[in-house]
Design goal:
Distance between the termini of chain B: 49 Å
Largest interface: A-B, 38 and 35 residues
Distance between the termini of chain A: 53 Å
Helix content of chain A: over 70%
Order of helices and strands of chain B: HHH
Strand order of the largest sheet of chain A: 1-2
Radius of gyration of chain A: 24 Å
Shape of chain B: elongated
Structural class of chain A: mainly alpha
Oligomer: heterodimer
Strand content of chain B: under 5%
Number of helices of chain B: 3
Number of helices of chain A: 22
Structural class of chain B: mainly alpha
Radius of gyration of chain B: 20 Å
Order of helices and strands of chain A: HHEEHHHHHHHHHHHHHHHHHHHH
Chain lengths: 578, 115
């Protein structure tokens, strides 16, 4: 059990080490790489089945009990992310076999890829804030090298912005971490969460200020509104396989950290943080989509769309926090059982579930779009829309495979993106946050415009005069790069099928997202998984948990509220008579 | 002591930001380094400064008596230093390679990927 929780990190790390050991034997490295990715996928499926049926599990490294040791926690949200990690890992590894040149492979490409994947798993599973910082750094280091591997001019120039802003965000994260440790004296997230819930009035302004440091740090990693400039400057420069992995996974690690930190750790002053996150979300959506509208290079359009999609995920979080604050207010005036209060509470749950579902849909779709863009780049030697065309006539299959993720991204019904947007917009309406709902619908229309632009220019119109290969394009990887269509199409088809499955069978995926969101909104499951019985006692002391009453034999007594007789029993006054 | 360290941290941050806003890539890296050092000192200071009290349990006692130095903060700093060492090694290579490719370390000449 314990090894299983850590295995999504251990397997990629072991794969990376084996790839380094087989440094000069490329064929062996490829075999190890594929096997490692398959093993990760298998383990992550196993983990999600286990956690979804049996609840969150955790492991404490070296047997040091939490909060002193470093904990790895697999709750539903974390395992969903690990599963997505596994899916994009296998897709990108197979795609790399058909598209990455031997020069890059011989410089440790496979080892770096698996180090990056392992670090992402670590960031998802870790329950310790400093440990998350370390995984972030491992992830950044591998991504730095992957981004610049090959050393083309565009890659280096893109890397400067990527490296600078991400390092700066790490420093902000570390400062926040140091100050938080100085304030609450713990690094374990569940423990900090409990300590913050029990914080005195005097500490709350300090903690809120610290939460803004975390918002900034993770906001940079997630490419949220004022901090997104590094993303469109760098994501289109490396070879397609690398940018697909980055596009799918890396920013979502930032979103994951934001959702985790603002549900489990920082619960102070939600009436300040909720609107701030919502406004950031709206601006992220709008600037991203407007940026995309002005671009004419496929991968740059898609890069700006990552930014705009991040806005939707943050919108879920922001609306959830705002709805919870409103529900608390309604509970004070109308009572906790009033229909309005209950509707507001359910809006919070739907918004957060929408966020989780959005991430689930987005990682698959975005990776796939970048993979398709990579095939276009291979076929035409260029991804500038002005210089290419006629792909619908020459490659109808590719055109279809582009349409599925593109329409899903735009939110056309029955595809996965529709349900994701539907849930978030519905939650926004239910929570009466109309401004951001209008922004979301407006951005959705512009997303469709961008996707249709790529479709019309690259696929529909005839190939324009002149040779597209003469146009300089980043990541085209001319000399020595293989082009094996079968290996490049296989992951695209696989991801498109997953998109269709999430779209047509949205029910199970949505229910899973909803369960994950409920786990996040309720502090009990996470605390119980990490801290066990003492954690529950501390929650009970805060009034957030009630132990089931135990009779002398040790069997739980059916409490009044559980039994069918509740209404009549509740009328009987217990304890002190008035 | 706390005041002195706070001033030093502030100075390092200010100097770091100033250096990062220069146009030279080399200065940008130096700026990043200075902010990193400032952060390490920040962790050290915010964990609480206790002088001459190592976290050792006195003979005959079963727990720490009174406030002692917190050993976790230096452990965190050590980890951060090791990481920043690797990051600096990488950025220095990046500076060199970029200089070879672009022929300048002026950041204003390195904006082709933004267009």
């Amino acid at each position: 059990m314990n090894a299983l929780v850590a295995s999504p990190v251990l397997i990629p790390m072991l794969t990376a080490i084996l790839c380094v050991a087989a440094w000069n034997r490329l064929r062996l490295q490829r075999v190890i790489s594929v096997l490692g990715a398959l093993a990760l996928l298998a383990v992550s499926v196993w983990l999600i089945v286990l956690v979804d049926s049996g609840g969150a599990v955790s492991t404490q490294f070296a047997g040091w009990a939490a909060p002193y040791g470093i904990a790895f926690v697999a709750d539903r949200f974390a395992t969903i992310m690990v599963l997505l990690n596994g899916i994009s890992a296998i897709a990108v590894v197979i795609y790399s076999l058909g598209s990455i040149d031997e020069r890059r492979e011989s410089m440790g490409y496979h080892a770096l890829l698996h180090a990056l994947i392992g670090a992402c798993s670590g960031a998802f599973l870790s329950g310790d804030l400093f440990n998350i910082y370390v995984w972030f750094e491992v992830m950044l280091m591998s991504s730095f090298v992957l981004l610049t591997l090959g050393g083309e001019r565009g890659q280096l120039e893109g890397a400067i912005k990527y490296v600078t802003l991400n390092l700066l965000s790490s420093v902000i994260f570390l400062s926040g971490l140091g100050l938080l440790y100085g304030t609450v004296g713990s690094l374990n997230m569940a423990d900090i969460g409990l300590r913050i819930r029990a914080a005195t009035e005097a500490d709350i302004p300090v903690l809120t200020a610290l939460s803004v440091l975390f918002l900034t740090a993770f906001g940079v990693k997630a490419a949220a509104f004022p901090f997104f400039f590094w993303l469109p400057a760098s994501y289109h420069t490396p070879p397609p396989a690398i940018s697909a992995l980055f596009a799918g996974l890396l920013t979502k690690v930032g979103v994951y950290a934001l959702i985790r930190v603002f549900t489990v750790v920082f619960t102070t002053d939600p009436h300040i943080m909720g609107p701030i996150i919502s406004v950031i979300a709206a601006l992220t959506m709008i600037t991203g989509v407007l940026g995309a509208a002005a671009q004419f290079e496929i991968r740059r359009i898609l890069s700006f769309h990552i930014v705009s999609q991040i806005g939707y995920m943050l919108m879920g979080l922001g609306v959830a926090i705002v709805a919870n604050v409103r529900a608390d207010r309604l509970a004070e005036t109308l009572g906790a059982d009033a229909p309005d209060t209950i509707a507001m509470r359910s809006a919070a749950a739907i918004a957060l579930a929408g966020s989780v579902f959005y991430i689930l849909h987005h990682i698959i779709v975005k990776t796939n779009l970048f993979l398709v863009a990579g095939v276009v780049l291979k076929l035409k030697g260029c991804a500038e829309l002005k210089h290419i065309g006629g792909l619908y006539r020459s490659n109808p299959m590719l055109a279809l495979l582009f349409m599925i993720p593109a329409m899903s991204l735009a939110g056309i019904p029955i595809l996965s993106g529709f349900w994701a947007k539907f849930a978030i917009v519905r939650a926004g309406l239910q929570a009466e946050t109309y401004g951001i709902v209008i922004a979301a619908l407006f951005v959705s229309a512009l997303t469709l415009f961008s996707m249709v632009k790529i479709w019309a220019e690259a696929f529909w119109k005839d190939q324009p005069e002149g040779d597209p290969r003469a146009v300089e394009s980043y990541g085209a990887v001319g000399a020595g790069a293989p082009f094996k269509p079968a290996l490049m199409y296989a992951p695209i088809i696989g991801l498109a099928v997953i998109t269709l499955c999430i779209g047509v069978g949205a029910g199970p995926a949505w229910n899973l997202a909803e369960r994950a969101a409920n786990d996040l909104l309720d502090p009990v499951p996470y605390t119980e998984a990490v801290l066990g019985e003492p954690g529950l006692q501390r929650l009970a002391a805060l009034g957030l948990y009630e132990f089931p009453a135990i009779d002398p034999i040790g069997m739980p007594i059916e409490t009044a509220s559980d039994s069918a007789l509740a209404p009549t029993l509740a009328d009987v006054p217990t304890g002190v008579t008035p | 002591m706390q005041m002195l360290l706070s001033l030093v941290i502030g100075l390092l941050y200010a100097a770091g930001v100033y250096m990062m806003l220069r146009r030279s890539f080399v200065k940008l890296v130096i700026g990043l380094l200075m902010i990193g050092h400032g952060t390490n000192l920040l962790i050290f200071t915010s964990a609480g400064l206790v002088r001459g009290k190592p976290p050792l349990i006195d003979p005959g006692l079963k727990a720490l008596g009174g406030p002692t130095n917190d050993p976790l903060a230096p452990a965190l700093i050590l980890t951060a230093i090791v990481i920043s060492f690797a990051v600096v090694a990488y950025t220095i290579v990046l500076v060199k390679r970029t200089y070879q490719e672009v022929g300048t370390d002026d950041l204003r000449e390195m904006r082709t990927t933004d267009r």
